[in-house]
Amino acid sequence: MKVNGVGGPAVPSASRPASKNADGFRLPGAGGAGAASAASASSASAGLTGLSALMALQGVEDPMERRRRAIRRGSTLLDKLDELKLGLLGGESSPVNLQGLARAMSETRDGDEEPGLKAVLDQIDLRAAVEIAKAESRRKS
């Protein structure tokens, strides 16, 4: 199904027009206007169904996307730890670096990573938590 803009999916037209004398279900007193409004309501609900299905598919993540997001989070934490280290070695204890590390730590992490990646991310999280705790203890002293 191809979605063409906001209007929803394109509905293919019938290959041959229906004849007026065709056998089928017909409501008594239903004229041409009723049939047109029924067709309009039908296509509108088909558009909503197609849109709902599209939204549901977008919510599904593949394992590679989860892995990429976990690696990106770990890389961000390592970058923030490096910034903190450089600041401490330079003699400047910057609260901005510490706040950036705390923000990166607060990002949620999926629990279903592969075992090797999970172990590395656990070590990075532990190191970041230790640095945050050390900075807070220095600040309280």
Structural commentary:
With 141 residues, the chain is mainly alpha-helical. The protein has four helices and no strands. The radius of gyration is 29 Å and the shape is elongated. It has two domains: 32-61; 63-140. 8% of the residues are buried. It has helices at residues 32-59, 63-89, 95-106, 115-140. The N and C termini lie far apart (64 Å).
Short description:
With 141 residues, the chain is mostly helical.
Distance between the termini: 64 Å
Q: Mind describing the biggest β-sheet?
A: none
The gyration radius over C-alpha positions equals 29 Å
The helix count comes to 4
Strands, total number: 0
**Which structural class matches the secondary elements?**
mainly alpha
Mean pLDDT: 74
The amount of beta strand, in percent, is under 5%
Order of helices and strands: HHHH
> Into which percent range does the helicity of residues fall?
55-70%
- Low-confidence spans: pLDDT under 50, at least 5 residues? none
The geometry reads as elongated
Domain count: 2
Protein name: Flagellar assembly regulator FliX
Keywords: Cell projection, Cilium, Flagellum
Organism: Brevundimonas terrae
Pfam family, one: FliX
